[in-house]
Amino acid sequence: MNVQRLDKGHNSQQDGSSLEGERSSTALVPLKTTLESRASDSVIEVYITAVPIKKASSTLNIIRNVVPKDGGHDLQHLRRFAKHRDVPQHVRGPTLQGGTSDHIFLILAVTSVISQDMLIESLSPTLEVVSLYSIQVPRLAPTSQEQASQWTSRYWPTVYKKNNPFGPHPSIVSRAEDEIRGDAEIWMGLAARAASNSKASGFGEEVGVAIIERKNGTARPVAVAGDARWLNWPRDERGNATAHATLRGIAMVADALRRDSSEYGDAESPATDDDLEIFESKPNSRTEEENQQVPANGDGYLCHELEIYCTHEPCVMCSMAIVHSRFGRVVFKHRMPSTGGLCADGELRHGLFWRKELNWTLLAWQLQSPASSNSYLICAQQPTEEIPESVVSNPARILNA
Ligand SMILES: [Zn+2]
């Protein structure tokens, strides 16, 4: 099964069949990084004053001398000067006495870097009256126009500079979304089919992944894996963690590459399939078997720039495996707040897809759609392997993925 991209996102074909109906409602929601999550609720306190417009720039010059480089704080995302009509009521209110049309508000300094007395002493020679007020402002730059607007009405005029110091650049994210929007539901449907097979066969929980290679506008699966934690494993509390769907999928990619290199007589390829048996990397359903293909890349990193579609947010172990294998993109459907490793705003807050201290970062989305329960409709284009009605499970019941 190959999916070719025909235009920017909204029109692709699967084996010649149109799936337009399901796709139109797809929403890819980029995950927030750990830094973005922290940025959204972090504020600092600054001193402001109202100055006559004629003295605005000379007052700022004084401040730049008294507090060079704002004492190490980056205030570039905040308007230094603000007119009365541009600040929230709680800022405008107590300073109205200085607030006529020939006055303007000015952020002087972060309160922790200079005392009130020193500020007043420095400004007194220039300003007849120095009235200081302290207000809260966002500590870090906003990561969207929407956030900048919210902060402007809540704190102080805030500027969005169309970049993101705390995660992937917005233009990179939107270009990637244009590429995957058209067929993300298809690959998620394939992952859901593997999940259903796992559940129906009793091998594992209803969790699945599809690993996709996308080159020159054409996407194709290279591995599809369902969870197999109960396969050849006692029914203890957690099952075989190395048989989680993500690890199985990665192991399948490894197997395909290994078999491919042994066919070409590569002396260094490992010997037998038995070596990796604990990973349950052998396909155990027709869906898994039919979709195992050798990816084109061979640069030493197993899944370099591949995409992985997961029915559930991968657990911390699987999230790290995704990072280590150097996937380019990860898309999941159900959040797993207590065990997932990707989200930065769940209970664990690891945000592993984008951590500057790790040596690989990738893009991550949650796939949300009102038609999400219709994943099986998409799969129905290629009949599933007898999925009973009862397997449509409550994701919260699954401990981890
Ligand atoms: Zn896992």
From TrEMBL:
Region (Disordered): 1-25
Family listed: Belongs to the cytidine and deoxycytidylate deaminase family. ADAT3 subfamily.
One GO molecular-function entry: tRNA-specific adenosine-34 deaminase activity
InterPro entries: CMP_dCMP_dom, Cytidine_deaminase-like
Listed name of the protein: CMP/dCMP-type deaminase domain-containing protein
A Pfam family the protein falls into: dCMP_cyt_deam_1
Domain CMP/dCMP-type deaminase: 182-345
Sorted UniProt keywords: tRNA processing
PROSITE patterns found in the cross-reference section: CYT_DCMP_DEAMINASES_2 (PS51747)
Example of a GO cellular component annotation carried by this entry: cytoplasm
Listed Basic and acidic residues bias regions: 1-10
